[in-house]
Write a structure and sequence with these properties.
alpha+beta; 6 helices
Length: about 260
Amino acid sequence: MLVQIFQVDAFTRRRFGGNPAAVMILESFLDDACLQDIAAENNLAETAFLVRDGADYRLRWFTPTVEVPLCGHATLASAAVVLERLEPRREVVTFHSASGPLVVSRSGDSYVMDFPARPMLATSTPEALTAAIGQNPTETLVDQHNYLAVLETAEQVRKLAPDLGVVTLLGRAGLIVTAPGDDGYDCVSRYFAPAKGIPEDPVTGGAHCALTPYWANRLGKTSLRAFQASARGGELRCRTLGERVELEGSCVFYLEGQAEI
């Protein structure tokens, strides 16, 4: 069977920046083992699988090793595929997912995603976290998904070279490291998720579901400019809406074709 496949760089305005995601269009979801094999074959941080559901779409996300409950950049890429290729006259699309309905709307040459906020709780710093990043964070927070380590400067975040083997011992899917922003950004961050088969994720929407309420509260702002300081780099505009957040970003198409399954 031949399946439409797109590869899209998300949260960027330049090709080869942001976070690449594969988006595949299916008539119905294949069995989980096959979906996982496809994601491993694509070997990108995320592969999104879309199935039409009336006027909406059902959406699932897989890393090369596991299915995940939420993925921002692959949702953004999926919205670009629907709004630019499948149904270019549409302005809004709703995806039904493990994290509930996710609405994405067109905003000029970018897209705005409505996602659930992920408030985090302050906690003591695990020894493994200090060992993983080689320094003591000024604050440590946690939720069911990730640890969040706050450093003093953006430069510390940019130069960080964590011990990924130790990161896997933290008992969470990933580690967000953040600091006050530079170069006109409100905050900078990086995200490491070796337990999910992603040593470092280039740009992470899910992490910004936690970073947005944290930095909005700390800075006394409701709208933020965020930069994820991976090697590829990515930009987000983030807004806090109580129990929801809006994440806005752009996409660049890289590949369009067919995969034989």
